[in-house]
């Protein structure tokens, strides 16, 4: 590398990245048009216009590359860019808290990486250098995080977790991945709808549906959708988490590396860590699986909405492994999973009531169909009873999952049924309390105790505790923060 004060350009191969990305869809698009019966002259004209647009965009990218420079000095990291409208951004070097590296297949083909340098601030706290040669990207990361150059940027003090391939099977019960696969398939059907109509695919499906019994016509597609969703979620999980490693480095940084086609390296300075969360979605919980997430400053749910896995410290894995990693990250012997303080019976009544209200539309629909004569009375009664039983079961499960306790330096809160979340939050990281009561909670003598912090979602609740117990718990968790606002109630 040149002297630290020299301005440098990005790698010129970044211009080819845009060219490849623009031209890549041309071949399948032209192929689909020809298969659909489009005039070859029309296809050739479209291809020519496409290529011309690609040339124009590539020229603009080359101009942008020429006017983009960056500099890493002893005090600041700076980026200048823009041909007509110039911008100059800089970050204090001593405020740098993360250096994340990403390389999609095109970047990897050309030996490039995208370097994201962050300070942990929510606004204007990140610089992105798109188009750094891979060795230079590793050296930049080492220089900014380790505060010195290193001959082996891959070296780390120790691995906290490595992915075992068998863990990828948990993707089959990860509903978010399955929904993502179904969404992609629905989008593909929408994009190629005209082609399917031309070849009579929809008509053939309709004829087959009418030719078979109703249970078969519904059951087989439903089973196929489930199998495709499970297989697709496995492949998506393979791309996301392959070769996953979590390491603790001598710089006081947690580093996550993962990805099959798109390689990602995500860094988190432990000074920013305020706790961890063990998340157990319902299906994953039934198979004794869980995932571990970081609760850290600069990793809010709003900011990371476009990349929900930025805070993941361990992908879906056995529950025991998720808790072990959580304990390792926190520096504890074990992650507390027992000894939680239970909540009043009134909290159970509230959860069963809300669950029954959620089941009411299904029961109402069944009763309406029976009254109109669309279905017999027997199945309608079965739907009503089954909906009520399922609602009660979910309400009881939600109540059983409630719990809170103090454990050393941490406040622990557990809640949820669709997704059970156990959060260990540093008591020193709590900056305030909120006490919330609805009308119905006041009648039951309950309240929500909400710890506010500058990390993660910003608020972590202990719901439906008795009013006096909640105030006492908050006061014990962070002594003297709440004391000036409390008055003892004299005994009668």
Automatic annotation (TrEMBL):
Keywords: Membrane, Transmembrane, Transmembrane helix. InterPro entries: UCP026631, YdbS-like_PH. The keyword Nucleotide-binding does not apply. The keyword Flavoprotein does not apply. Residues 65-143, 399-469 form the YdbS-like PH domain. The chain crosses the membrane at residues 12-36, 48-67, 167-192, 212-238, 354-375, 381-399. This is Putative membrane protein. The lineage of its organism: Bacteria, Bacillati, Actinomycetota, Actinomycetes, Pseudonocardiales.
